[in-house]
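Q: Given only this backbone (605 positions), what sequence would you predict?
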């Protein structure tokens, strides 16, 4: 067996959480309000004064796309509105400190560590088991490590035996990961559950820095940031220039970086780095009690998970009873014996599931717990990275992962919309709404990507004129938006995330079409290994955007100087720059389709 490629990254350490700064937060809130006001002014002007009357189909379509994107901006601002100081409470010593109602308050806390696996390399899982056994805690604690093998593999059972941990499997794969977790919960009894995927590797501080949050008896779960320790870091611009053209070029590169900041060549083209999501988006949902569970790296209070499951089970039983009465008896009154019989049958039919059987079981379960207003469960995004994981290694793995995210979220939006779920607060509805609404962005992103090519090929403008009034409205909005987002996400480069969001429009459209047709979003395990080869067939829509844009610029330039068309110099330049921005956004995922394993690193086994 060859050495796994990720062994080359063992010395990497996660970034510290972004520091809280009340002055920067106040500046962000001010700039965000200014941006929304200018944006509202721009949208109102677009509908009232800028539509091209000779091409209303095109003009109205683009204005509608801009309006929908502006609504998404409002939700995003609401999400990022307020941050909180970074805190790390002291580790509790006994059960009584995390559960005031415990019958044995002086006993040590017990934690079940679950490693859910299906077909991943057992040696990869072994690394997580070794790290889990090295978890440190300042007080006596009972940590029980379990391998949850849905693949029923003798090799995986042997690894568990060698590492001295529990091995749990089952006869079927019902419910996929959610069913796997349910099966394990039936055979364990820890006060808390640490959820790990096959490639999750806990740091020694994982429990010492998180269990203190559970001194709040209403806290149901803590989600820790996920960190991919194998992401390509690239090389500094100055290093690349010096290696190719000598010391003078290197000095020029350093001068450029002093002006524009650090520039790296060869960074992860798939924009996998999740820091923007965890350190900004999720962390700022804490104030609204809306930070949702993301699976791996989360710690759950068993009582909360089971209590929510029992409530949901009871509700499903009663719904089935009502359906049976309505469909079978058609009577206003039902005999008590018959009612008991119907209820008994319903209890035997329904399934008690602590985690919802769904491709997005983590966020689904979060919604259920947050909606339990009677119990008042809360959640928290812990700011420190406590585990490390492997990123999707190629475009196939990335596509599978992103399709599950998009499809699972859209399935919840269409079939069990949290905006109408009883029990959620207004702020929680806004936060969940922002998440699900973002996956609809593919609808208007398509318009933004192909609108400039439509003008470049036809000369038909979506605005009455590319006049001074147009630029007077659009430029202040763009500038204020960029400035506000820069301050709001200070410390994290957001350009790659924005480009990835724009470039993933085919995945979003495919997921939406699948859900609207009533098709089930299949649970496919994200591959953990790297596959050699070129995957250009996966990026044909993105290649089409680039090809059409380049061809459109060439044609519009020719038409402007040699043909009698509706093109104007201002219109061609404006749409060419817009198209160039789109091409830059597409370039990352196209490069990812051509990316090959680095020959300087060890090979995947």
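A: Predicted residues:
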């Amino acid at each position: 067996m060859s050495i796994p490629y990720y062994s080359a990254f063992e010395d990497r350490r996660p970034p510290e959480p972004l520091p809280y700064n009340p002055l920067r937060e106040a500046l962000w809130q001010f700039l965000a309000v200014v941006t929304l006001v200018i944006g509202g002014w721009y949208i109102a002007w677009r509908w009232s004064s800028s539509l091209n009357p000779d091409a209303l189909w095109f003009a109205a379509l683009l204005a509608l796309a801009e309006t929908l994107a502006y609504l998404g901006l409002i939700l995003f601002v609401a999400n990022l509105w307020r941050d909180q100081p970074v805190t790390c409470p002291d580790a509790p010593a006994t059960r009584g400190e995390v559960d005031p109602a415990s019958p044995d308050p002086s006993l040590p806390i017990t934690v079940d560590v679950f490693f859910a696996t299906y077909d991943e390399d057992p040696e990869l899982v072994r690394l997580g088991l070794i790290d889990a056994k090295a978890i440190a805690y300042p007080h006596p604690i009972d940590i029980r490590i379990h391998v949850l093998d849905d693949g029923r593999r003798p090799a995986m059972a042997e690894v568990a035996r060698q590492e001295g941990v529990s091995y749990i499997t089952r006869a079927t794969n019902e419910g996929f990961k959610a069913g796997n977790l349910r099966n394990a919960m039936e055979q364990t009894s820890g006060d808390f559950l640490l959820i790990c995927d096959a490639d999750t590797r806990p740091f020694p501080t994982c429990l010492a820095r998180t269990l203190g949050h559970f001194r709040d008896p209403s806290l149901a779960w803590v989600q820790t940031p996920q960190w991919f320790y194998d992401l390509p870091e690239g090389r500094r611009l100055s290093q690349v220039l010096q290696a190719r053209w000598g010391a003078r070029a290197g000095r020029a590169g350093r001068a450029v970086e002093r002006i524009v900041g650090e520039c790296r060549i060869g960074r992860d083209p798939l924009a996998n780095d999740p820091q923007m999501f965890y350190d900004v988006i999720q962390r700022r949902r804490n104030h609204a009690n809306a930070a949702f569970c993301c699976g791996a790296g989360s710690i759950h209070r068993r009582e909360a998970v089971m209590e929510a499951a029992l409530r949901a089970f009871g509700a499903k039983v009663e719904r089935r009873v009502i359906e049976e009465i309505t469909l079978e008896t058609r009577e206003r009154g039902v005999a008590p014996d018959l009612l008991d019989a119907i209820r008994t049958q319903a209890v035997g039919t329904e399934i008690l599931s602590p985690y919802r059987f769904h491709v997005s079981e983590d966020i689904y379960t979060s919604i259920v717990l947050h909606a339990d207003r009677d119990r008042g469960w809360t959640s928290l995004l812990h700011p420190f990275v406590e585990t490390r994981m492997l990123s999707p290694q190629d475009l196939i793995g990335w596509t599978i992962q992103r399709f599950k995210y998009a499809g699972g979220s859209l399935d919840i939006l269409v079939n069990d919309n949290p905006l109408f779920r009883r029990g959620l607060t207004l702020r929680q509805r806004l936060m969940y709404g922002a998440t699900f609404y973002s996956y609809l962005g593919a609808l208007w992103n398509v318009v933004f990507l192909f609108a400039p090519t439509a003008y470049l090929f036809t000369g038909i403008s979506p605005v009455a004129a590319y006049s001074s009034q147009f630029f007077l409205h659009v430029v202040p909005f763009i500038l204020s938006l960029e400035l506000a987002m820069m301050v709001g996400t200070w410390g994290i480069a957001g350009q790659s995330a924005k480009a990835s969001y724009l470039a993933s429009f085919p995945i979003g459209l495919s997921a939406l079409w699948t859900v609207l047709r009533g098709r089930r979003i299949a649970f496919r395990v994200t591959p953990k290994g790297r596959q050699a080869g070129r995957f250009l067939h996966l990026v044909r829509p993105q290649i089409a955007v680039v090809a059409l844009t380049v061809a459109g610029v060439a044609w519009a330039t020719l038409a402007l100087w040699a043909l009698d068309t509706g093109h104007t110099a201002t219109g061609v330049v404006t749409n060419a720059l817009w198209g160039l921005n789109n091409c830059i956004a597409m370039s990352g995922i196209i490069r990812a389709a051509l990316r090959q394993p680095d020959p300087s690193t060890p090979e995947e086994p």
